[in-house]
Amino acid sequence: MAFGFTATRPMRLAAAILILCCAAVRAEEASSPTSQQPAAATPSPSPSGQKGGPGRGTAATPSPAAEQNRLPPDSTTQQSLALPGRTLNFTATAGSIRLFDDKREPQADIAYTSYQLDGADRASRPVTFLFNGGPGASSAWLQLGAAGPWRLQIGGDGAVSSATPDLLPNAETWLDFTDLVFIDPVGTGYSRFVASGEDVRKRFLSVDGDVSSIALVIRRWLEKYDRLASPKFVAGESYGGIRGPKIVRNLQTQQGVGVRGLILVSPLLDFRDFSGSSLLQYSYTLPTMAAVAREVREAGKVPLTRADLADVERYAQGEFLTDLIKGQADTQAATRLADKVAALTGIDQAVSRRLAGRFEVSEFRREFDRRNGRVTGRYDASVMGFDPYPDSNSARFGDPSGDSLMAPLTSAAVELTTRKLNWRPDGSYQLLSESVNRSWDFGRGPAESISQLRQILALDPKMKLLVGHGLFDLATPYFASKVLLDQLPAYASPDRVKLVVYPGGHMFYSRDSARKAFRSEVEAMVK
């Protein structure tokens, strides 16, 4: 889940809608935006809190303000989960890892939730680190929607604001084949700054500072739990598509941690194609718009698959682009394009001609069923909701497929943390932080991670990449990833790089069939 794109802030893509610790590595760490308190020389299998000091020398004394903002000691509990055909016994830990700057001053406490299967061999047992996107999103979506031991129903009757946030045993949990560590970047979940000052916020709330801090948390968790020898995997959703490849690259080259595989869920890989005057954005979203039209037209009688959109994909990469590039100066091409788009999307031909067949996401969402005063979802455009201002000249609606999940997901995350896992931080749980999103520093120009994808796959020929998307996702359309992945060199062969697409939206795992199928793909990669 991410804030994603808006017409007004394309770079933030914002809307409501996761070692070889030698002296050389420590020297690199000192020059990074953050450094964290090392673990004890002999980490405890189930530590109750952060151990050790902030360096090999004398520990810096935390300021009273930092201690006042500190999260409580880690809580470790033994859990048992009865699932169809098996029972999982595991150790759950809700806690935090404190990060320091190069002067050994405390900067932030990063909250995590980990699940480790009991009785497994630590050296051979895989471990997967998961985070969502935003920027400003906690890891609740992946934990409670897809991979964690407990699941919240976030589709159908569960996808309404007043739904009871009941946590159910998750038959599709990934815990059967990998231990799980869910990470909440600073400012999300219960993670927080412990140092004051705008310079601290600027370091963390940036593309590079965010990557450095999460990579360091991963390394410290591995040290803390004696898991450096374990096969390691990284999974990110939405803006996690920017984070993920960059974090893996940082782990490989800065933290001394090798990664076996990268799993990206509904990722955004390149902001540049969805900003400014880029024409590719219209090509990337067209197959999803057509998919929504066909899904609604068939009323779900026959499950729509990506194969059913082969004709639209060919058009979006061929004749559509040819006519699009000719522009409105070529009236025949413009009319031909507009009429074809109208036929594919079901939108009135006159409207399509007025817009020259170039539907921005917000325009499609409003025009698709405007006659009935309804708008489509952005995270799942097959979900419809009422337009609160159907007669307004401007778009003044939210997202019926994302906004309604805020309340149940927040309540479920708090319930899980405080009651099941017995960890009770003060302050509010931040499912989505608009403050983080508004403050985000994207650096010089729109962010992209294709460069890092090329580097991490080239560096390690055994590393694999799995990308999963939903057909009806207008926030991060699947066709964009398809086109970008097709540009990778030959070493990114099909046995190493795989794209899977399911009926569903941004959180395609809210649908039972998609969640089960994607779990099988992840299991095949990890094993």
Walk me through the structure.
The protein has 527 residues and is of the alpha/beta class. The chain folds into two domains: 331 residues, Alpha/Beta hydrolase fold, catalytic domain (Rossmann fold, 3-Layer(aba) Sandwich); 121 residues, no CATH class. It is 34% helix and 17% strand. The strands form three sheets. Strands 1, 2, 3, 4, 5, 8, 9, 10, 11, 14 and 15 form an eleven-stranded mixed sheet that branches. It has a two-stranded antiparallel sheet with strand order 6-7. Strand 14, helix 16 and strand 15 form a beta-alpha-beta unit. Helix 6 crosses helix 15, helix 7 runs antiparallel to helix 8 and helix 9 packs across helix 10.
